[in-house]
TrEMBL record:
Stretch forming the signal peptide: 1-25
Name of the protein this chain belongs to: Carboxypeptidase regulatory-like domain-containing protein
Alphabetical list of Pfam families matching this protein: CarboxypepD_reg, DUF4382
Spans annotated as Disordered: 66-86
Molecular functions per Gene Ontology: carbohydrate binding; carboxypeptidase activity
Alphabetized UniProt keyword annotations: Carboxypeptidase, Hydrolase, Protease, Signal
Gene3D superfamilies documented for this protein: Carboxypeptidase-like, regulatory domain
Domain DUF4382: start-end pairs: 34-200
Length: 296
């Protein structure tokens, strides 16, 4: 069974309206501001080969769109084009080691709160300098970090965030660990692994337009015991949207699901897979779906 893992970086944009004043004659200048609260979280990573997965974040930035810059910008723009008229607001700067294996099923890691000007934000950049994986046999591998350490990992959010003083916006950064941490060597057995290459693959969701699904996976025996490590797959148009795994209590939670129609299925070693169930996710919805699996 192919198992994947996601790491989630949540950005909470709480838009308050403090005022900045300066004296020009008898006039006061009022500058609207908001704030951004940065958190990390993770979905379960149940593979029995991995003991821990860590990476070091040194800076997180958000781009404030301006009227002068938007006509020529797109996801394919160069770094120079991105910065013309689009100031980057620093949300975090320092050195923070994140052990994503400790953050599961909705747990988060706060990176602090930063004041930012009110406006529209469409792009975030995360700077990573180091990453490592420790296997259950005790070996630790340092992961080669590509150019993201110099220019940052560029992550667009659609739709863009509108930061005002009237509401709180939240953004979820979902890193696919199976694609971001690429195994090297003979990946058919743990002893054959000789390293990793780090290629961050991140999905960004504006939680103001998203929902979640959670539930339990149990067996069909009389005691209905929970099944730990069961795989729960969410699919959109027959394509896997994201995958997570149950914890020791048999529970699971998938956050940051864009509004739309999906199907969901649970499976586990030694059990027959569940039926595929239709699922509708609406803006802000928190859907519950439980599964009962039969032994093979």
């Amino acid at each position: 069974m192919k198992r994947t893992k996601s790491v989630l970086l949540g950005l909470l944009l709480a838009a308050a309206l403090p005022f900045s004043c300066s004296d020009y004659g008898n006039d006061l200048q009022y500058v609207k501001e908001g704030s951004i609260h940065v958190l990390f979280t993770d979905a379960p990573y149940p593979t029995n080969w991995i003991e821990s997965a860590e990476f070091t974040v040194t800076k997180i930035e958000a781009r404030l769109k301006t009227e002068d810059a938007e006509s020529s910008e797109s996801e394919g723009s160069s770094t120079t084009e991105e910065n013309q008229g689009s100031p980057y607001q620093v949300l975090f700067e320092g050195s923070e080691v994140i052990n994503i294996s400790e953050l599961t099923n909705g747990m988060t890691r706060s990176m602090g709160v930063s004041a930012v000007p009110a406006g529209t934000y469409d792009l975030f950049r995360v700077y990573v300098t180091d990453a490592s994986l420790t296997l259950t046999d005790g070996r630790t591998f340092d992961v080669k970090v590509p150019s993201g350490s110099q220019s940052g990992v560029k992550i667009f959010v659609k739709p863009s965030l509108e930061v005002t003083g009237e509401e709180t916006n939240e953004v979820l950064f979902d890193m696919d660990i199976s694609k971001s941490f690429v195994l090297r060597g003979n990946t058919q057995r743990m002893e054959g692994i000789n390293g990793f290459i780090f290629k961050p693959v991140i999905r960004v969701v504006n939680l103001g337009y998203a929902g979640s699904v959670s539930g339990m996976v149990t067996n069909d025996m009389e005691e209905a015991a929970p099944i730990a490590g069961a795989q729960v797959s969410l699919m959109a148009a027959d394509t896997v949207y994201t995958t997570t795994f149950t914890d020791d209590s048999g529970g699971y939670k998938i956050m940051g699901i864009e509004a739309g129609a999906y199907t969901i299925q649970a499976s586990a070693d030694g059990f027959s897979a569940s039926e595929t169930i239709k699922l509708q996710i609406d803006q802000g919805s928190e859907v519950t779906r439980d599964f009962v699996l039969m032994p093979e």
